[in-house]
Amino acid sequence: MLDSTDIEILNILQENGKITNAELARQIGMAPSGVLERVKKLEQKGVIDKYEVRLNPKALGISLSTFIQIKTADSVGSSEIGRKLAEIDEVQEVHWTAGEYNYLVKARVSSTETLALLMKQFGEIPGVRDSRTTLVLDTLKETQALSLQFIACKNPRKSAK
């Protein structure tokens, strides 16, 4: 179980994963060694999964976001086609879903021409039967940060931000 200090650390790291241990300790009001120990424990428990850099897709010319629903001939419980979809470089997310379509895919491409090539790749995967594509006109919010405000805490030091 996490305590309020762990949650405070996680909130700060979600905002700035590049923060130094000394600065993190200063913001928490703890010794750097204590904060480092907590971060290591959060990593060992799998709470902190990994650290990565978020690139600006527009600055790289990859500004067209799409959400694509994929209908497949997969048998119930099979995710073989989903794994093949996930191997495609332009695909950022693959979600196995309930309902008429089996997968929801998020992809980024540079143009409608590259989107057409991507759709062709999808169609070449055996078992893909149909798709429905939605183009994103503007993104108002996009984050991988998790809201931690309702996580149960033990020994609350102070309320999490």
TrEMBL record:
GO term, biological process aspect, one: regulation of DNA-templated transcription
Pfam family, one: AsnC_trans_reg
GO cellular component term of the entry, any: cytosol
Domain HTH asnC-type: residue ranges: 2-63
Database matches in InterPro entries: ArsR-like_HTH, AsnC-type_HTH_dom, Dimeric_a/b-barrel, Tscrpt_reg_AsnC-like, Tscrpt_reg_AsnC/Lrp_C, WH-like_DNA-bd_sf, WH_DNA-bd_sf
PANTHER family: LEUCINE-RESPONSIVE REGULATORY PROTEIN (PTHR30154), TRANSCRIPTIONAL REGULATOR AZLB (PTHR30154:SF34)
Name of the protein this chain belongs to: Transcriptional regulator, AsnC family
Organism: Desulfomicrobium baculatum (strain DSM 4028 / VKM B-1378 / X) (Desulfovibrio baculatus)
